[in-house]
Structures are given as C-alpha cells and as structure tokens.
Design goal:
Helix content of chain B: 25-40%
Oligomer: heterodimer
Shape of chain A: elongated
Strand content of chain B: 5-15%
Largest sheet of chain B: 3 strands, antiparallel
Order of helices and strands of chain A: HHHHHHEEEHHEEHH
Number of helices of chain B: 13
Chain lengths: 263, 333
C-alpha cells in the first residue's frame, strides 16, 4: 500500500512536488506541510469526497505518483493535487507545527504588511472568509487594526480563502498572545486648512465615545485593554474640553492670519 | 493628463506628470503659475527659485554669454522640429552640470508645492475630479470598502516629512499606495487639505460606486439627498458601521472582548446605526431646552465654520489658496 511506501522514505527525503508548489510564483502564502502529517490518514478525513482523483492527487503531493497517463489527465490530477494541498493546508496550519511555520513566515512579513498608515507596516496574516472551498478568495488580516484587507497582487487575490480558513489567524494570537501588538488610538482626521470637517469630526467624536465605553467595560472586568496610551479612558470629559479649546485656538490664529493677509 | 499632440514638443510640466510614479499629479496650468500671488512664500522654500520656475514654464534662461551656442541651437530647432528633451540638454550645456541637477530637483520641489495649492483651487480640483473619475488614484485596500475610490493626500504640508498616502472617503482612513513607486512621491505635494476639500467640493459623488460606474456619472440619487452635518447622509463613511466590522471567530465562535487577543479596535470601523445620533446640534438643543440661544446660533460647531467660509470667500476670489503660514502653522493633535 501507499502508506508503507511513504513511511519507507526517510524524513530527509526531498519533497519535490511540495517544494515546487510552495516555491512557485503566487504560492508565497503557503507553508510546507510535513510528510508525517500528510501520511496520517486521520488528518485527511473527509477530503476524499472533496477532491477528484483523490488518491492520485495525494500520491502526487507525496511524490509517489507513478501513473502513466496522457497530459490532459496529468493536468487534471495536478489541479486536484493543488486543491487537495490547499485543503490539507487549512488543517495543518492550526496544528502546533503548522502554527510555528506560519509564525516564521509572519515574522518575515511573507504575507505582506498592513496598508493602513497608522499600523506602521505591521505584518499581515492570510485568512479565509469562509471554510468552504470555491466561495471567497484569501484576504489578509492585520492584528493591529483588526481589519481585513485585499492582497495587493492579483496572483494572491485568486487563491481560495478556504486554504487558510476562518480560524487560523485568530488561533495564532490565542496561542501566542505575546504577538498581539499594543493598540493605538492614533488615527487620521480629515482637515481643510487645519480645520476639522464637521461630518467626519462628529463621527470621530462618536467613535471615541465607543472606545471609551469599551475601555470602561474592560476596566470594570479588570482586563488589560492593550492600549499603550490607555486610549484616554481616564479623562474622557477633560479630553473633549481640550479638543474644543484647540479648535477655537486654531480658529483665532487663522482669523489673525487672514486679517494679516488682507491687511 | 491630456498630453499635447505629437507635433508640439512636450512641456516640462506634462513630461513631469507622465513620469513613472507621478500618475497622481494634475497638470498645473501656466496661468496659475504665472500669477505671482499663487506663489507667495515659495521663494524662500526652494533653492534657485528663479531658475526652477523658468524650467517649469519652459522659459529660456536669460543668458548674455554663449550667444553662439544659443544661435546654433535655434538653427537646430528649426531643422529638427525640436526634440525637446535633447534640446533641453543642449541648451543647458552652458550650465554647470551640478547646477543643472540642483535646478532640476528644485523645479520638482517647486512644482510640488505649487501643485499642493493648485489642486485646492477651482481649476485644479476640477482636474483632480476628472482623474478621480478615471480611477487614477486607485481603490481602498480594505475589504469592507469594496473598492471604493481613494484620493491622494499628504499627512503634512511641509515637504520631506511623509510620502503621499491614499485617503478613503468610505472608511475615513489613510493607506500606503500599493505600488512602491509612489513611495518616492512627497505627500506635501498634495497636502493635508485636498482630500477633505474634495469631498466638500463634490458632495454628489456616490462614494460607494466603483469602476466604470463612476465614469458613467454615478451621483447619488435624489431620494438619498438627506443632509447631516453638511454632507449627504449616505456619503458619511459608507464603508463603516456594524455590518462592516470584522468579527474574529474561532471555529464559528466569536472571540470575546475579554480575551487577551479579543477585539479592541472595532470602534475605528463603527458608525451609529441611526446617523441622527451624530446630529450634535439637535441633541444639544434637546438636552438643553432652557438655552437662551435661538435655533440659528445654537449650533456651536456650525457658527465658526460659517465664519471661516466667509473669510475664504473674501480673499480667495480666484480660488487662490491660503498662504503657507496658515497652512503649516497650527498645532498637530
């Protein structure tokens, strides 16, 4: 049987297909799945119904494929193998070894960096919006702003999100809580000649109120908020007063300047 | 943007704007540059100001020496029909090479600073709106913004501090442009005002529209024309709100706020379900029924804004921007 075949090969055995797969262009988000993981049938439970030519595809992934077939068949099996690899990948990356491999890639920012200016190029993690295949492409999650972004490259935007799943990136920070960066209330404020714009300013004030409510909830439960600057929870009212002062200050100065220009 | 026909030589301005990475720039009209008022205060900010300005406007430098060379050049010009780039190289033979590179970089700096003012003028912001419609500024990378169009902005009005960023009106946040070629473009060349001013100038763009829909003239429909805080309600951060916040889950279960890795940033993407909550003036009136003020003057935030508008009108007839002192001086929050 194929199992025996695979277990005979020692662990140093070069994984040709997987090597080729993870190093080919566009597949930078994938890590290499261990031989041991692939050969434990328990890990693959249920996947045989998901993938066409399941056994051949698995043989290809584990480099024991030796079927003589025409190119068209070969291509179909190749495609199945890529799909199967992705589905196994989603399961593998939530294992201890898989998490560690993805952590390495995360630290190297292999998945890109958050495009949000105030996240200061924080590395991203790939994620799916659903665990069912063929539904939605992969997205990127930033733990700093806790939001989801589209990959820059169209090659990556075509990858199935189910190959990463909806849980992996959250498990990562559950398992390695020290990876969660300090949160910051730093943000962009739209301005015209130094003045805040009414519509956005009132929304921002409301959002700040929401943040303060959250911080109070957390403090009540004695949970660390994770804000490096405590998000200004202490003196909500004072802070608001200050802000008003600044707005008036700016107005006075601009008035003075305007007079200066006219005069 | 609109390139000159192939017969005429390309101006410095249009060749600058067609450089790789300069896709966000509008072509500042010569008329705007020739009005000295628009350049107030820039002399002191740029080295070799006069030469740089001449370069931008493609004016031949006034030189008494090297008459011969100049003559030669003119002949060449008439024969060849002036390949401008080569012509420029030759013309500048008389200058020391290092001087030339100083002038070239000064010209770029000067153009950028003029550009910052130009795109806030009537003609400039109009040109930028055409570029917006054509999708020159790209789209928001945030998933929930669904490819909403962005605007190039600076985080500072002072050159050399930050590169150009993209402002998404749908989530009111700023992003790093996806292509690294924009990471050499100074944000001050767009300035802090343009993004917000654009939204105030063109309130009728439907900010949720994407792709060809914008070109087709997608404006908000008449039944959506409810106003709040000086904007159409449907255009107040359409990419935010309870349905547009990412909710972390593990195997389908929400991660609790009380977990160490639980959500802490949802406020940043939040928006009241009922936007009238943002109508602070009305709420103030409701909370303070005894207030002496009548309806008009009760709006604490409305009053100063109105005064500001009057001032802008007073000394900004030709769409001229406020000078640098006003632009750069106020305190950062």
């Amino acid at each position: 049987m194929m199992d025996e075949f695979a277990s005979e090969s020692d662990s140093d055995y070069t994984s040709y297909w997987r090597d080729w797969f993870i190093s080919s262009r566009g597949n930078e988000y994938f890590c290499e799945i261990d031989e041991d993981y692939l050969t434990d049938r328990f890990n693959l439970t249920g996947l045989n119904t998901e993938v066409q030519y399941y056994q051949y595809a698995l043989d290809l992934i584990t480099d024991v494929f030796d079927l003589d077939c025409d190119d068209e068949m070969r291509e179909t099996i190749e495609k199945s193998a890529r799909h199967l690899y992705g589905l196994i990948h989603a399961r593998y990356i939530v294992t201890t070894r898989g998490l560690a491999k993805m952590l390495d890639k995360y630290k190297k920012a292999d998945f890109g960096k958050c495009p949000r200016v105030f996240c200061h190029s924080h590395p991203l993690l790939p994620m799916g919006q659903t665990d069912a295949p063929h539904q939605k492409p992969v997205k990127l999650y930033c733990v700093r702003c806790e939001d989801v972004y589209n990959p820059k490259s169209s090659r990556h935007a075509a990858i199935d999100g189910a190959y990463f799943g909806t849980s992996f990136h959250n498990i990562m920070f559950q398992v390695y809580p020290a990876l969660v960066p300090p949160k910051s209330s730093e943000r962009y404020v739209p301005r015209v000649y130094g003045f805040k714009v009414h519509a956005s300013a009132s929304l921002i004030r409301w959002q700040n109120g929401q943040r303060h409510k959250m911080l109070r909830r957390l403090r009540k439960m004695e949970v660390e908020s994770g804000f490096k600057d405590d998000g200004g929870a202490e003196d909500l009212d004072e802070e608001d007063d200050e802000e008003d002062d600044v707005e008036l200050d700016e107005l006075d100065r601009a008035e003075a300047d305007a007079m200066h220009v006219v005069g | 943007m609109m390139s000159s026909s192939s017969g005429t030589p390309e101006s410095w301005i249009s060749s600058f704007c067609s450089l790789l990475g300069h896709e966000y720039f509008a072509e500042v009209s010569e008329e705007f540059i020739e009005d000295d008022f628009n350049l107030t205060g820039l002399q002191t900010q740029v080295a070799m100001y006069k030469e740089a300005l001449e370069m931008i406007l493609d004016v031949e430098p006034e030189e008494d020496e090297d008459e011969d060379e100049e003559d030669e050049e003119e002949e060449d010009e008439s024969i060849e029909g002036a390949d401008r780039m080569r012509h420029g190289e030759r013309r500048n033979h008389s200058r020391i090479a290092s001087d030339l590179s100083v002038i070239e970089s000064s010209a770029e700096m000067l153009y950028g600073l003029i550009h910052q003012r130009f795109i806030c003028s009537r003609a400039g912001i109009q040109q930028m709106s055409e570029k917006y419609e054509l999708g020159h500024f790209g789209v928001c990378p945030r998933n929930h913004c669904e490819q909403a169009r962005t605007l190039p902005v600076g985080l500072s009005d002072i050159p050399g501090e930050e590169t150009v960023k993209l402002f998404c009106p749908s989530c009111l946040d700023v992003y790093v442009p996806p292509n690294s070629r924009f990471q050499t473009v100074d944000g001050a060349f767009f300035g802090r005002t343009f993004g917000a001013l654009f939204l105030l100038t063109f309130p009728e763009y439907d900010l949720t529209k994407r792709g060809a829909d914008v070109l087709a003239g997608a404006r908000i429909s008449d039944n959506d024309k409810e106003m709040l805080n000086g904007m159409y309600t449907c255009n107040i951060a359409p990419g935010l709100g309870s349905a547009k916040i990412y909710e972390p889950r593990i195997y389908g279960f929400r991660v609790s706020e009380l977990a160490r890795s639980g959500p802490r940033m949802q406020w940043l993407r939040d928006k009241p379900d009922d936007l009238s909550e943002l109508d602070e003036a009305r709420k103030f009136a409701e909370d303070n029924p005894d207030s002496d003020d009548d309806d008009e003057s009760m709006n604490l935030h409305g009053r100063p804004v109105r005064r500001l508008r009057q001032q802008r009108k007073n000394h900004g007839q030709g769409g001229s921007p406020v000078p640098m002192e006003t632009n750069g001086a106020e305190s950062e929050l």
